[in-house]
Amino acid sequence: MRLKDKIALITGGGNGIGKETCLLFAKEGAKVIVSDIDKKAGRATVTEIKKTGGDAAFVRADVSNPKHCKKMVDFAEKTYGGLHILFNNAGIMHSDDGDAESTAESVWDLTMAINVKGVFFGCKYGIPLIKKSGGGSIINTASFVAHLGAATSQLAYTSSKGAVLAMSRELAIIHARENIRVNALSPGPLRTELLMKFLNTDEKKNRRLVHVPMGRFGEAKEMAYAALYLGSDESSYTTGTEFLVDGGITAAYVTPE
Ligand code: NAD
């Protein structure tokens, strides 16, 4: 098992990438703290893990709230005695996110509070426990839109993911000699609820797919496998990267017919 004896905390563990990663990490032997703002979804992930003999526990946390983030890390320490893998994955893409003229300040603030401050709070409270546990791996979910301008405007979201990349790089350097690795995971467009709600017409979906060399949306499970590599000791010399798992989207100038 690739994560034997590891303790992992995953935010946004109730759906999409987070959920698939919780299931995979548990299958690979990790003790998993499933965290989400959505109690029902987070608990359902735990139930699914337990059904297959895995070890997991749920803690409700809104990652934009520092008290909740402290509580979620304290819960990891109380429940499993430490922390080795922190996956700051929870994020939103607001349906009213648009260009500079149309995006309301409230949409900008909410997006930044969850997508950027959420990662900061996860690290702020998670890093001391990772240090106490002898080191570990932090994975922060960014996006391919932090690398390329998006076809459909989503200014707050894109800006928030750029901040996640910059923050991850700097944290990687700060903690490089403390046995703590920090990497960003930059998924391409995925067939998860988050994106399908945003690209809510065939026209919008096709507009996006035109740019993906593989010609399909990615699956949450394909991100979970990338997170597994970054979380495990197999990536022991990998830090400060912007791990792109995007179906070739950032490599393409012209995509095949
Ligand atoms: P999803 O909507 O399927 O799941 C997100 C989970 O986060 C949900 O369970 C939700 O309840 C939880 N969540 C939302 N706000 C929260 C908060 N304030 N506190 C705690 N939990 C909260 O989304 P997903 O597609 O799995 O996205 C996961 C991450 O991947 C996000 O950071 C997203 O921006 C990023 N991402 C997604 C795509 C994509 O195409 N889906 C592409 C690139 C990056």
Task: Summarize, please.
This protein has helices spanning 16-27, 39-51, 66-80, 105-132, 155-174, 193-198, 202-209, 220-231; strands at residues 7-11, 31-36, 55-60, 85-88, 136-141, 180-187, 242-245. It has a single domain (7-253), classed as Rossmann fold (3-Layer(aba) Sandwich).
Structure report:
- The chain has 257 residues and is α/β, with parallel strands linked by helices.
- The chain is built from eight helices and seven strands, in the order E-H-E-H-E-H-E-H-E-H-E-H-H-H-E.
- It has helices at 16-27, 39-51, 66-80, 105-132, 155-174, 193-198, 202-209, 220-231; strands at residues 7-11, 31-36, 55-60, 85-88, 136-141, 180-187, 242-245.
- The chain has a seven-stranded parallel β-sheet with strand order 3-2-1-4-5-6-7, sandwiched between helices.
- The radius of gyration is 17 Å and the shape is globular.
- It starts with 6 loop residues before the first strand and ends in a 12-residue tail after the last strand.
- The site of nicotinamide-adenine-dinucleotide (NAD) has 31 residues, from helix 1 and helix 6.
